[in-house]
């Protein structure tokens, strides 16, 4: 009787060990599959973000009535705290007049205007650069003014000038292009 019990216990122990080896191998397989799926999810999230950005660009083109040329940022200089201080675009396929000062717009709003054309690149004067400016209005109230870049290297900063004292403007109001001057279409976010 004792030997039969010992044989059963030993058989049960071997069976449990084999089961645990299978479970361990199954866990390793699931962990590898999980890592592959996480990597795929990250890739799909990047593609989804790119898709949203590209759809936004297509939507932007629909709302701008002027001829639009797409360009890509090919160089940028940064200063302290990684603030972009200077941008260069690839030159579009059709010629741009030297110093044409064409509007440069992104999905987020006004970037600036084109400057010097050199070889295959176009320099961009940022809207926050000293001497740069755009006619703006407060989206909430329609109050008009002129947004002028300060050239502050520590932060992106524009000051609004030529606003009537009676105009209602609050901190946090969205400034958009007014369309006056016809350089920028109306309604593009500035600050």
What does this structure look like?
Helix content is 32%, strand content 27%. The protein has 191 residues and is of the alpha+beta class. The mean pLDDT is 80.
Structural topology:
Elements: H1 2-63, E1 73-78, E2 84-90, E3 103-106, E4 109-118, E5 121-126, E6 133-138, E7 144-149, E8 158-161, E9 175-177
Antiparallel strand pairs: 1-2, 2-5, 3-4, 4-5, 6-7, 6-9, 7-8
Output the keywords.
single chain, 191 residues, five-stranded antiparallel beta sheet, 27% strand, alpha+beta
Low-confidence sequence ranges: none
> Based on CA inertia axes, which overall geometry fits?
elongated
- The number of distinct helices, counting runs of at least 4 residues, comes to 1
- What is the mean predicted local confidence, pLDDT? 80
Structure in a nutshell:
This protein has 1 helix and 9 strands, in the order αβββββββββ. By secondary structure, the protein is α+β, with helices and mostly antiparallel strands.
